[in-house]
Each structure stands twice: as C-alpha cells, then as structure tokens.
UniProtKB/TrEMBL annotation:
Coiled coil ranges: none
InterPro entries: DNA_brk_join_enz, Integrase-like_cat_sf, Phage_Integrase-like_Recomb
Natural source organism: Lentinus brumalis
Biological process terms in GO annotation: DNA integration; DNA recombination
Keyword Flavoprotein: no
Alphabetical UniProt keywords: DNA recombination
The protein's name in its UniProt record: Tyr recombinase domain-containing protein
SUPFAM superfamilies found in the cross-reference section: DNA breaking-rejoining enzymes (SSF56349)
Gene Ontology terms, MF aspect: DNA binding
Keyword Zinc: no
Length: 244
C-alpha cells in the first residue's frame, strides 16, 4: 500500500477494524488517525469525509454492529430499597456509598465524576472534587466539579442539590451526615469523597457495593444512576430539553 493515505486505504482500514471491534468505535479511531496525520497530510480530513469512506463505515455498521446494551435506570423502588437498607448504618463507608449514589442520581452525574478510575494511569488529582468547594445551606448543598467529560473549556461546573427538588430533604440530610463523618475522620484532607481507610473511592469499589444490593440484576451498573435521575425528571413532567 502507498504510504500516503488515500480513500482506498482508509476504506480498507475501516472495514478491517469493523471485523475486530464495534463498528461504532471506528469513527473515533479514524478521527484520532486524522488528528495525528494532518500535520503531514493536510488533505486527510477531506479523504476521511469522502463518499467511499463514509459508505464503507455505514456498511460496516449494518453488517457487524451489535445492539446497544443499555443499563437499567434505577427506579424509586430501587432507591427506597437502598436507602432503607443503609441510611441507619453507623459504618462510614455505608454512608459514603449512599451519599455518592443519591448525589449522582439527583444531580445527573456520571460515576466517573464521583470516583477514581481503576487504572492508575488514568487517575488525576485535577479531577478530584475538593472539600473546600462545598457550600451548605439549610435546604441545599453544592460543590464544584473541577472538570468532566463534557467540559471542553476546563471551566468546571457547580453541582447543586436542593431539598425542594425530586431529591427531597433526605438527600441533603444524608450528604450533611456524610460530611460530618468525613470532617471528624479526615479534618486535614482536601478530597471531598474519601473512604474510611483514607483512599479515594474507585469505580470497582462502588460497583461491588451496588451489585451486592442487586446480586441477581446484571443490568444495574454505574450509569444506572444518571439514567434513573433523568427518568425520574421525565416522569415528573420536566421537558427533554431542560433535562439535557
């Protein structure tokens, strides 16, 4: 094959990858390749958007793509079950898990915004929420999300939960209870979310605790929080554009 990329070589590469990975991911692979090659081949973007490459991708998706397997949204019954089981616990990690779960649910947060990745090379303190950003009122709490998946400008966002929302007062009270535990145990630490052993909670730690409550339901996972919060808002009559 010629070293200089052409419509034919990108098309062959796309269909080759479709045999080995989910075809919906090949778009991302090609975007990364174009980003790397553009300084050397300025017309690579034009080749990438050519009819041959675009049709090859469409054909690959039709031939090899698998149905999307979405995780089940947490329902109000699920939340009542979890809350009833854990809210009277005196164990530090139980209160931490419940506070994270309900905060993520009602603030529509991704699990990755609450915990650390399992892979050490992906961890960064620049993404860890800080205790000093927490603002408490009688009826609400808020803290700063320093950066996240959709934060293209790295400006961060404020996460706000108020007790007159779907969350109700129990979530605000639970967060305050966790904060009280945390401040007594780790008065000099900067991280907002900390386990009893002093480590930042990881994705696998959170998922293990969630699966322990739903041992026979593999459709419940980290994204179930965000999906459950969005579903609850929709059922309450909130418009789709506002939820988004």
């Amino acid at each position: 094959f010629p070293i200089e990329p052409t419509e034919q070589t990108l098309s062959l590469y796309a269909i080759y990858e479709c045999h080995h990975i989910e075809p919906r991911s090949v778009d991302s692979y090609l975007s990364g390749i174009c980003s790397e090659l553009e300084p050397f081949y300025p017309n690579i973007r034009k080749i990438r958007s050519s009819a041959l490459v675009s049709r090859t991708l469409r054909g690959g998706k039709r031939l090899y793509s698998q149905p999307v397997k979405r995780k089940r949204a947490l329902t109000s019954d699920d939340i009542d079950l979890i809350f009833t089981r854990l809210h009277q616990s005196t164990q530090y990690d139980d209160i931490l898990f419940l506070a994270q779960l309900l905060t993520g649910l009602y603030a529509l947060m991704r699990l990755g915004e609450l915990v650390w990745p399992d892979r050490h090379e992906l961890r960064s303190f620049s993404k860890v929420s800080r205790r000093t950003t927490v603002v408490l009122t009688e009826h609400s709490f808020e803290f700063t999300l320093r950066t996240h998946k959709s934060d293209k400008q790295f400006n961060g966002d404020t996460v706000l939960v108020h007790d007159d929302s779907l969350a109700g007062p129990r979530v605000v009270n639970l967060f305050k209870a966790y904060l009280s535990f945390r401040d007594r145990t780790f008065p000099c630490r900067a991280e907002l979310w900390l386990r009893r052993n002093g480590s930042i909670p990881t994705r696998s730690w959170f998922i293990r605790r969630l699966r322990a409550i739903f041992p026979d339901d593999s459709s419940v996972a980290g994204h179930s929080m965000r999906a459950g919060g969005a579903t609850a808002l929709a059922l309450a009559g909130v418009t789709g554009s506002l939820i988004q």
